[in-house]
Amino acid sequence: MMSGQLIVITGPSGVGKGTLVHKLLERYPNLHLSVSATTRLPRAGEIDGKDYYFVSKEVFGQMIQEEKLLEWAEFAGNCYGTPRIAVEEKLQQNISVLLEIEIEGAKQIKQTFPKAFRIFILPPSFDELDHRLRQRGTETETAILRRLERAKEEIALKEEFDRQIINDDLETALTALIKEIESII
Ligand SMILES: Nc1ncnc2c1ncn2[C@@H]1O[C@H](COP(=O)(O)OP(=O)(O)OP(=O)(O)O)[C@@H](O)[C@H]1O
Ligand SMILES: Nc1nc2c(ncn2[C@@H]2O[C@H](COP(=O)(O)O)[C@@H](O)[C@H]2O)c(=O)[nH]1
């Protein structure tokens, strides 16, 4: 029987999910952050097996076929998915697991793990989201525009999630996130 909590952090690209999750892990080192598989190419400094499992489209397709992914989605031209086995093992060991994933995957999780707690991170404004994506400096102009276009559709779905937190001031958002997480673990 599984007893750890499954916590999903979702929201548009560039809103600060990764930044918040890494700060959260400093505070709660016992939480397990799932490492996703992706067909995206690594960015400078990203490490295979730590930031992502960087795989080919063929390998990703095989993972889908073999039901090795708990959820997966296509996002801005690449595929992303959560490897099932590590998540199930941690939950069975009573370790709570964090997924930092986009909205389609977060919707799928609701079907397989109805008790998962899903938090939607919002930007203070669309202009600020645009600014964060640009100043991160990891995407081409085309990719930024694609992610911003998708962000409009994603933000429209925010009410489908258990909680919404605005990431304006980082420390304030982190405090709100900690409060939500402490209420369930
Ligand atoms: N509260 C904040 N105020 C200002 N800048 C922020 C804040 N939170 C995050 N950032 C910055 O915004 C940029 C995007 O943050 P981050 O990479 O964490 O977003 P993300 O939601 O994980 O993106 P993706 O979904 O593409 O992985 C980073 O440069 C980060 O330093
Ligand atoms: N559905 C899933 N989405 C995921 C997963 N891992 C990451 N992501 C999300 O993809 C976008 C783009 O990520 P980036 O690293 O290219 O900026 C972002 O919203 C991530 O949260 C996953 O396993 N499943």
Explain what the structure shows.
- 42% of the residues lie in helices and 21% in strands.
- The protein is an alpha/beta fold.
- The chain has a single domain (6-182), classed as P-loop containing nucleotide triphosphate hydrolases (Rossmann fold).
- Strands 2-7-1-8-9 form a five-stranded parallel β-sheet, with helices on both faces. Strands 4-3-6-5 form a four-stranded mixed β-sheet.
- The radius of gyration is 16 Å and the shape is globular.
- The mean pLDDT is 96.
- Adenosine-5'-triphosphate binds next to α1, α5 and α7.
Instruction: From the alpha carbons, calculate the radius of gyration and give it in angstroms.
Output: 16 Å
The H-level CATH homologous superfamily, spelled out, is P-loop containing nucleotide triphosphate hydrolases
- Which structural class is indicated by helix and strand composition? alpha/beta
The string of secondary-structure elements, in order, is: EHEEEHEEHEHEHHEH
Low-confidence blocks of residues: none
Count the beta strands: 9
